[in-house]
Amino acid sequence: MLRAMSLMAIFVFALIRPVTAADAVNPQADFKAFRDYFTKKFPNVPLNDFVNGPYSMDAGLRKQWLEIDQFPPYDFAIDRGKQMFAKPFKNGKTYGDCFPNKGIGIRQNYPYFDEKSGQVITLELALNQCREANGEAPYSYVKDEMASLTAYMAFTSRGKPFDIKIPNDPRALAAYEKGEEYFYTRRGQLNFSCASCHVQSAGEHIRTEMLAPALGILAAMPIYRSEWNGMGTISRRFVTCNSQVRGVPLPPQDELYRDVEYYLSYMSNGLPIAGPGTRP
Amino acid sequence: MRLRLLFSMTGLIWLVAATAATAASTNADFKAALNAAEAAENDAGALKNQWTTTEETLTAAKKAAAAGDFDTAVDDARQAEALAKASIAQAREQEIAWRAAVIH
Questions:
Q1: For residue A173, what are the contacts with CB-CB under 8 A and spacing of at least 6?
Q2: What is the complex's ipTM, to 2 decimals?
Q3: pLDDT tens profile A40-59
Q4: CATH match of A75-155 with 1.10.760.10
Q5: What number does CATH give the domain A2-71+167-279?
Q6: What pTM did the predictor assign?
């Protein structure tokens, strides 16, 4: 039954709106419309509070969170990340040598568009590129070491506003638009887009979970989740969100995942980094 | 004369089709159905839009074939092909339709 319904649902959306010239990419206009949408939808949520995801939407959850946060379950990840950051590779270099300002207080600038490679570089990708450039094997993108490193880097950037730039380069605009397309494209047998859940249904419950609004949605990453019984990165979250709609996830750090991270981070410009975070 | 030939040929085709529908499926039938399903699923992969249900149904088809149950195997493979084709249709339709959902 579900099967037949989702098959049918696919075709219903085809006829809604014709494509027009007004669809030319315009990140600034998108940014304004996106922000207006959420601030109007949730007039009682202070702008900077959107970064707290489900906790910005629900007083009960928020109370639990403030209690948990007295002994944050992500603390071990920050400590571990800090140690890893300080420990030299076999060649004597460190992570800090791969990043501006030795990697401290820079998370808000990621992802960025790299004009040399013509690609979006996320923090997770940059960390593994750093490892490989120094003769070390890359880490899994989804948890453990990668979560610890990004937790520490986010922690050193707490409160700093997202500052994502789209350089005047057609490839950067194309990457932005691909990310936007990925965000709004329905997929999986259940025929949901990211936006179906994190725009249209933001603040609503899905089974036991409260859906985070797309505004500021990456600011608290990586997160400790009780459901995961551990830490997870942005890659892990994207993979999980794809599987939920019965879509085969892309490989972590696939170009499209990096593009959608670029798009969502740009939409959050000005909102403070709050990672690492904790989630139910 | 011609009409009669046509008539008997139609009868023959009907007979063959009816037999095929009731006869037990063979390994060859399964191979053909699997090839078609996998080709469609590869196309869905090129569009980065595979469904987990397609993958699960393909796995079930192979499992049934390995156990010698070619009727089930062929049914599952055809089901997987239908799912893969639906995911392709979804991707193609969304290439344009996503714009309608953008916040304006």
A1: A25, A27, A166
A2: 0.87
A3: 999 999 999 999 999 999 88
A4: yes
A5: 1.10.760.10
A6: 0.90
